[in-house]
Each structure stands twice: as structure tokens, then as C-alpha cells.
Inverse folding.
């Protein structure tokens, strides 16, 4: 189970972010607008952290791992977008960010429209009857995609590991803690490993099995020690996001981020993580076979 100190850190980080978000910005509505994208990513990261801590172990550990993997994606992408200080390079990355989703949608649409009707007569009949979509892109989306493709410029973002590496070239020189825990290592140790929890796998089944053969308790997650699970790294990664926001956006003040990261900041007044990390699941936990105690220590 998480330590009280960790709860204080999360509560302080959330409270600090809530001083600046939501915010009103001037924009032309483009998703390549840094004034929109930057605070949106900060909000995504802090709210994903909050969500992870609303999913206490052991019962909700897998769910917390799943959304923490998304937090890693958000944080690395934000760090990659924020790394350049010159407008030209950042604008290039923002255009790649905007186009990336549309290219992914196009690939998914091609897979659906090309392969699905060939797989079974049932699908062809349902599509013909209008009971299944004939494609995954609306006419408006298809037209927007064609407009983007007709314009000169970058096609999409590099893979997440490459975003992490490119971000590290900047942030490991500006943020001391990243020199020993670079974003590429966060990708390797967290994003890649949590893929098995996010997708159907033997690993995610194992998350819900306790005990040793010939008797196993299935459907209950194994208890965690204080250093296990995604909670601590999710908190530290969100602190890094707020440090980057401070350095590139001018908020929150850097000293406030470091204070909140140690749990010294004031509670948010909006979310009380210490209460949210309830113990009802632990009290109601069944007994595991072979005298394994499922109650967290």
C-alpha cells in the first residue's frame, strides 16, 4: 500500500496544478497551437495521476497500471513537444503531432474497409444493410485528411521511444533528476513493460492469481509492497511534467513544483487522495490458499 508521504505528494501536485488549470487562451482552434496543446497535456497528466490514485491496490492495481501507461505516453510526448525553444522546430513538431492521429485513422480505416468484408459474408451483408459502418472515417474527416496530405510538411510523429530519446537530449541537461532516470528509461521500464497489463496477455492474467499450485486464488490481485506498482513513478513523472511546464510555460513556479513533489505543498481542497485510497477492498479480501495473506501490510 502507498505510504502517507506519497499521498501528500500527489495531493500537493494536484493542488498546484489546479491553481493554473483550467485556463483561457487565445487560439485559432488548430491542434498545432502550442497555447492549446501545452496546457491540455499538463491537465491530461495531472488528471491521469489523480485517476491512478483513485484505483488502489490490490483490487485495482491492473487498472492503475493501464492508465499509468497512458500517463507515460502523455508525459513523453509533452516533453518532446516542449523541448525546442525555437519556434520553427516546435511548430514542426506540433504539425507532426496534429497529423499523426489522422494518419493513424487512415491506416485503421484501410484495414477495416479492405480486410473485414473479405473475411465473412456476414460482415458484407451487415455493411450492405447499413447495420455495420462501411468505413471508419466520416466524409468530413476524409476531406480533412486529404487536405492535410496535400499540404507540404512532416507526416507524423516518430515512435514514442524516439520521442523520449529526442526529449532526453534537452531535458537531461536542464532537469538533474533525468540524468539518472531519463525518459528513455521510463519508456523501457514502464511503458514497454505495462504493455502486457494493457493488452490481453499471460502477464495480466498472472496479476490476478495468488498462491502456488495445486491451489490458486484467481480473481484477486497479489498485495504490493510500498515500492511496487505504478503509483510512485506516476507521481514522479507528473512532477517532471510540471517542471517542464514551469520552464517552458512560466507556470507553476519552479520552487512550488519542487515543494509539492516532496509533499510540502498545501492540499488541493478538491481531491483528498489519502481518503480516496480506501481500505474497504483490503478488509473484504478473501483468504488466499496456502496461508497467503492478501491484506496489504
Amino acid at each position: 500500500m502507498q505510504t502517507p508521504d506519497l499521498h501528500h505528494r500527489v495531493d500537493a501536485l494536484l493542488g498546484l496544478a489546479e491553481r493554473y488549470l483550467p485556463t483561457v487562451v487565445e487560439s485559432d482552434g488548430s491542434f498545432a497551437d502550442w497555447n492549446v496543446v501545452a496546457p491540455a497535456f499538463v491537465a491530461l497528466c495531472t488528471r491521469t495521476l489523480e485517476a491512478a490514485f483513485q484505483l488502489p491496490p490490490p483490487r485495482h492495481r491492473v487498472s492503475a497500471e493501464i492508465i499509468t501507461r497512458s500517463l507515460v505516453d502523455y508525459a513523453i510526448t509533452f516533453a518532446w513537444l516542449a523541448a525546442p525553444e525555437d519556434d520553427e522546430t516546435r511548430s514542426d513538431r506540433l504539425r507532426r503531432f496534429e497529423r499523426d492521429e489522422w494518419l493513424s485513422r487512415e491506416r485503421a480505416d484501410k484495414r477495416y474497409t479492405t480486410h473485414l468484408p473479405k473475411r465473412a459474408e456476414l460482415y458484407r451483408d451487415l455493411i450492405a444493410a447499413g447495420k455495420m459502418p462501411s468505413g471508419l472515417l466520416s466524409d468530413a474527416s476524409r476531406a480533412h485528411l486529404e487536405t492535410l496530405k496535400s499540404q507540404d510538411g512532416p507526416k507524423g510523429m516518430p515512435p514514442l521511444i524516439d520521442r523520449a530519446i529526442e526529449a532526453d537530449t534537452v531535458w537531461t541537461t536542464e532537469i538533474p533528476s533525468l540524468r539518472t532516470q531519463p525518459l528513455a528509461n521510463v519508456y523501457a521500464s514502464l511503458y514497454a513493460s505495462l504493455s502486457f497489463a494493457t493488452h490481453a496477455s499471460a502477464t495480466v492474467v498472472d496479476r490476478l492469481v495468488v498462491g502456488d499450485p495445486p491451489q490458486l486464488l484467481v480473481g484477486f490481485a497479489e498485495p504490493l509492497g510500498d515500492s511496487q506498482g505504478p503509483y510512485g513513478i506516476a507521481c514522479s513523472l507528473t512532477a517532471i511534467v510540471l517542471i517542464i511546464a514551469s520552464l517552458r510555460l512560466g507556470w507553476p513556479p519552479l520552487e512550488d513544483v519542487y515543494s509539492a513533489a516532496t509533499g510540502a505543498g498545501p492540499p488541493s481542497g478538491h481531491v483528498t487522495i489519502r481518503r480516496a485510497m480506501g481500505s474497504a477492498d483490503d478488509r473484504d479480501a478473501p483468504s488466499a490458499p496456502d496461508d497467503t495473506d492478501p491484506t496489504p501490510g
